[in-house]
């Protein structure tokens, strides 16, 4: 029957959208593909389900979660979108942009999601499987990256399994993430904006939409509580700007510096972003004791790549 064909088309790896919706409605977790990285999703209005996200990741409870919404209209039921936030959302959603806006008075998400802040981080993702899940479930899905806290973000279903091990939940396998690096996080208040985490949406794009540059975050204060200096860390020591390599190093190359594995032989930063986390996973799994990464230009999405690499190179 047609129904049967529909079910077949909606199977992603071992799970169907229907199974994922059922799991989420009963307060369970589901690992979901997005265009940036895989997320560990739960119903954001269910406090027990949200607690299970923190437990599964080993995530400290002061680090709030991003809530994923199907579109701007539904996001408005959770947070306040002034003119500038509306302009960003209309220009860049669905896509790899998270907006931190004032939380609505009657916002139904569990308190633990925002870790006691009066703001909420909202994103409307572009991945077709995630969009199908949001629309089919009608839920607002809290979803951090689907890795153990502090580890490398997963860009394939296999990474999710390797990072979470026995705690890995049902996984919707949507293939490798196209963008490969976490969303740009922008805080908007009183007509100004600050970049809390560099990502696939560049500062130049934001400036063009806003018609002005971002204000600079005041020094020292951690604005996105998850942005600790040591983060996204592989298990092995990592060295940056490595044009040459030692015998005991796995070399991640870029452009003319070939390496054991090259992020983009023709120096395409978007291609490099899509492969960076997979390269770090492979370097961890290799026989080499240490990791070295070739220099990566610090412009466009390269700013986000270098941000993740610097954090990965910082000892815990
Ligand atoms: O691309 C992404 O953003 C992925 C996919 C799954 O959507 N998610 C992701 O989530 O990277 P996570 O939990 O790994 O990073 C969320 C970041 C953390 O640094 C957290 O501190 C910050 O968002 N955050 C969440 N709510 C915030 C708020 N109200 N104010 C400031 N930062 C916030
Ligand atoms: Mg993360």
Automatic annotation (TrEMBL):
SUPFAM superfamilies: YrdC/RibB. Residues 14-201 form the YrdC-like domain. Pfam families: Sua5_C, Sua5_yciO_yrdC. It comes from the Bacteria. Gene3D superfamilies: DHBP synthase, Threonylcarbamoyl-AMP synthase, C-terminal domain. InterPro entries: DHBP_synth_RibB-like_a/b_dom (IPR017945), Sua5-like_dom (IPR006070), Sua5/YwlC_C (IPR038385), Sua5_C (IPR005145), T(6)A37_SUA5 (IPR010923), TC-AMP_synthase_SUA5 (IPR050156). It is found in: Cytoplasm. Its EC number is 2.7.7.87. Keywords: ATP-binding, Cytoplasm, Nucleotide-binding, Nucleotidyltransferase, Transferase, tRNA processing. It catalyses: L-threonine + hydrogencarbonate + ATP = L-threonylcarbamoyladenylate + diphosphate + H2O. Belongs to the SUA5 family. Required for the formation of a threonylcarbamoyl group on adenosine at position 37 (t(6)A37) in tRNAs that read codons beginning with adenine. This is Threonylcarbamoyl-AMP synthase.
